[in-house]
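I'd like us to work through together how a protein chain folds, taking it slowly. To get us started, please write out a protein record for me. Go ahead whenever you are ready, and we will take it from there:
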Amino acid sequence: MVGKKKLLKNKDFDMHENTFIDLIHFVKQNRFLLVKDDIFCLKAFISGWFVRTNAVVKDEQSLELFQKWIEERYCETNTVHSWANIISYYAEDERIALNNFFELFSDFYYYHFSNIEQSKNEGMSEVIRIDDLLELINLIKKRAPMYIGKDNIYCLAAFINGWYFRDTKTVKNWSLLFDFEDWLFKKMKRKKYSSSWYKLVNYYSSNGSEALNNFFVKFEHYLTS
């Protein structure tokens, strides 16, 4: 979740009006949106962004072309792995993988931009979008790997950020996450400084998967308390 004190660079950027390629440039300037410098958090953020995208055909085309380009670049044409997995495999850690992504995407953008039709209003198809935080969390709880990519609470937080910033004007129940954070710190008897709900849950968990499960349990307790 993005803290209230964080300031966005390029505030005039409107995720509701811009394309996927515009989004990548924006996220590169505001990496704190990813929660953690991790390529899988980026992938989760992008997935969250797509959940609230009404018109996705052109944006998905950009992502599909990038996937194919990465496969060809790394000679992984017979793989079933995502672009994030491929880039991560050839990097020392997830932070370096994230840095490599932005460099690779820049190469892809300049050399293949002519193959991507950058239309914001034409050739789009409608998809079901989710605007309610409670509905979103219930959906992720049922099939977390499908939506956030990894059983990891940081990926969950990045996914939620992507979902929120796609269209901040129509989001519902967003304040619940701030209320949950306050409730959680009181429940854990911890003073709240600059930490956040996902860091606190992760701190009291043995691994990322357990932290994710603990979040769903604690969030349910919060709703029923």
